[in-house]
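[step 3/7] fold_predict: job queued, chain A
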Amino acid sequence: MSKNHKLSMRRRCALLTLSRSNLYYEPKGESAENLRFMEIIDKQFLETPWYGSRQMARYMKRNNHQCGRHRGHRLMHLMRLVPIYQEPNTSKKHPQHKIWPYLLRNAVIDRPNQVWCADITYIPMRRGFLYLVAIMDWYSRKVLAWRLSNSMDAECCVETLKESLAKHGTPEIFNSDQGSQFTSGAWIDVLIDAKVKISMDGKGAWRDNRMIERLWWSLKHECVYLNAFETGSEMRAGISKGLAYYSSERPHSTHGILTPDEAYASKTEPMRLAA
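[step 4/7] structure written:
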């Protein structure tokens, strides 16, 4: 066996000893310039979520950033940023996955655990970036569970879903976009086994994502962009603190002076459907 082959085998064995959680917290790699552009694009997209790659390229040019449309398009795709006017869905569909019907049209959401929702967002670091998946109770806006990952794979989303179900019981309906993570067999099987009705955003329903998009805006402006996280452990600690503040200390306008945690603990009347 050659020296190079032995070295390769030792490297493979070393990788096998790493826990999956450690792999999740290894930041994604891009050039320093691209990381800077990604942060600029993400901040602007939070303010103007209708910007596609053409409009974003014009914005970058007007602000003297050398980031053309093709590079901007690739970076926006990498960050999972989809302009709301071009496509009602916020992530890429899988062509072979079943798309479930939208169940919330004309529904009045007026109690906890009636509807849950999920989304994934890009979180920048000083030398890379990670993805954050969160599951939220629609009525209260309480964050039920979350995870950081270095990829947008379905497994991270499924584990977050299982944690939510174990800690908070079962919702009546789970609504998501049509992204491949939320149409995967593993994700759907967990919901079916828990006897949860599955709902997916359809044409004209993109506004339903506004609750969790508001969470992303608050988290990034009040936590992420105020801290230049160096490591995955720093990122996790910062995100944990930011999400805990959002749910337990920050009153939500929908519920007056109540925080999401307090609204989640409250009791409301059963769901009503508009005529």
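[step 5/7] annotate
DSSP finds eleven helices and seven strands in the chain.
Residues 232-248 form the longest helix (17 residues).
exit 0
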